[in-house]
Amino acid sequence: MAPVPESESQFSSEVYPPSEAMRARAHLPSMEAYRALYDRSVREPEAFWEEQALTQLDWFHPFSKVREYDFEWGQVQWFLNGRLNACHNCVDRHASQRGTQTALIWESDTPGEGRSVDYRELQREVCRLANVLRHHGIRKGDRVAIYMPMILEAVYAMLACARIGAVHNVVFAGFSAESLRDRINDARCKAVITADEGIRGGKIIPLKRTVDEAVMACPTVKFVFVAQRTGNKIPFYPQRDVWLRPAMDAERPFCPIEHVDAEDTLFLLYTSGSTGKPKGVAHTTAGYLLHAALSHRYVFDYQPGDVYACVADIGWITGHSYVVYGPLCNGATTVLFESVPTFPDAGRYWEMVERLGITQFYTSPTAIRAVAREGDEFVKRHDRSSLRILGSVGEPINPEAWKWYHTQVGEGRCPVVDTWWQTETGGIMISPMPGATPLKPGSATFPFFGVEPVVLDEQGREIEGNGVTGLLAIRNPWPGMARTIQNDHQRFVETYLRPFMGYYITGDGCRRDEDGYYWITGRVDDVINVSGHRMGTAEVESALVTHPGCAEAAVVGFPHDIKGQGIFAYVILNAGWEEGQELIGELKNEVRHHIGPFATPDLILIAPGLPKTRSGKIMRRILRKIASEDYGELGDITTLADPTVVEALIEKRKSIR
Ligand code: PRX
């Protein structure tokens, strides 16, 4: 995919400087303040990170060395020989210092039916759950899958694992039984923590049933712990299943804390790559936690007394770093949002902002576009004067959506922090600082501390200077960087570090404009970003070809008004299969069944053939253009084995919506 957008007009030239009010209270009140700290973080990384590690985190045993790395072999270590515990840093130290402060506000699917827990209660609940795990044989290093709705127990479960040194593997509760099974087996999980059912936007999601189906083929799973969300009747197998609440109530609210090594794995989180098999990205304890906490503090300008809300699901990295670990490590009050942006209506976010007095609000461009199209009335109806900072993550934010968010939601008062990062980076990598950075709508602006972005050409040479475009890479390691891929270190090295020696390769294209601002232009590999959910086209293709009628499939992204990118599938049928709505429905179902509803193709084109080179390689560039209804410059098609197929595909494309 071209790393550069087709037209330069996509890059807005307007600049929004921070307001005086914002500067007056921000941690970083000017660009000079940002630059001074940033420069130090890259010029003297060891001194900078040592200082941050000692001031932001509690240690049981001091580290002896700040970092050690070798990109060639993918060895990255931070804070060597230090011992600490993420749960202690996120819970215990706050329970003793600010025990009655609200830690979590659970915002239930039904507005107003949620509840809050303070740091002391959080500590008791996490300890009880940790004891339940220990009494079922879960020990340090064991893996535990978490397949949960956005309820308090989901956060207790993550922190309980961290407390005893177990490694959590959260699987988004929208994934199918098959996807869940693969993630449990790849990580060799000993237990699964789930709930009877989930509720989102008033709809019931049968989680326990999905777990039952998955676990049938998971020989390592000994126990399934079940929280109750709806209380509806569900299948229960007493030899394997454990009701979580009574088990927790039977435990003491104290639990010894494991002193883990800085480099012990905190969690695995599966994400999509350009091949069919999802990658179990491994994050370790100290570096990850420090990066999450420090970025939360600066990017959201977190101050005591704030009510901070990131509405991401804990099934994705954003939920890990900015619902749970970052804010709790900073002793913040963080919101856990169970619902969807349009339930009961498109004013849900702003009604919640008003009712809870939210100060920072962090969501995705998709959600912004989905509520913006319902009209400004839904925003204006609610008092948003508590808001100070607005955040965006997951995909490029188009300037129109940015401006709507800034003007309508933030009344022009609140800076929009467009944060670029990835599952593998652990925390925010490129983002404005709210009191310092003059904003440009659609640009993630400048790097976070310790992050050295570079723009590479296709041969992997650094392109110096401003006003340049290319591949976004990062020079040198940063603390929150992923350390490996579960069971496949080779893939880790080859995907991220070996394409061009000395750099971490992001897979994104970017432009560094005349003023040095970074603009992320989207993936340059076969990964698509649908509603901020990252998906490998190969995964969707593998799901499609399991349908007996599908001989071959090629999947690409295409521009979608709300989702950013939609999923477009070209399908070649086996002999004897007839094209028709029923078949299209079956093909879509195949994807829902294998991956999950969020991966359902938006459009399926039954193709007479695919544009292939004489050596049999599919020309995806052409497929992307046709899917995008961009028939202008298809490039040289004379090298195709059958150039007439292009005309046929264009004709068909014109007939489907
Ligand atoms: O393409 C970039 C896009 O999302 C990808 C990472 O996806 P994932 O690992 O699921 O993490 C999403 C949440 C951090 C990136 O490679 N992306 C993420 N944030 C932005 C973005 N693209 C443009 N602007 C962003 N702010």
UniProtKB/TrEMBL annotation:
The modification N6-acetyllysine is found at K617. GO terms for molecular function: acetate-CoA ligase activity; AMP binding; ATP binding; metal ion binding. Keywords: Acetylation, ATP-binding, Ligase, Magnesium, Metal-binding, Nucleotide-binding. Mg(2+) binds at V545, H547. Residues 539-617 form the AMP-binding enzyme C-terminal domain. Residues 92-478 form the AMP-dependent synthetase/ligase domain. The keyword Secreted does not apply. CoA binds at R200, G201, G202, K203, T318, S531, R592. Residues 34-90 form the Acetyl-coenzyme A synthetase N-terminal domain. It comes from the Bacteria. Its cofactor is Mg(2+). ATP binds at G394, E395, P396, D418, T419, W420, W421, Q422, T423, D508, R523, R534. Transmembrane segments: none annotated. Catalyzes the conversion of acetate into acetyl-CoA (AcCoA), an essential intermediate at the junction of anabolic and catabolic pathways. AcsA undergoes a two-step reaction. In the first half reaction, AcsA combines acetate with ATP to form acetyl-adenylate (AcAMP) intermediate. In the second half reaction, it can then transfer the acetyl group from AcAMP to the sulfhydryl group of CoA, forming the product AcCoA. This is Acetyl-coenzyme A synthetase. It comes from Mesoterricola sediminis.
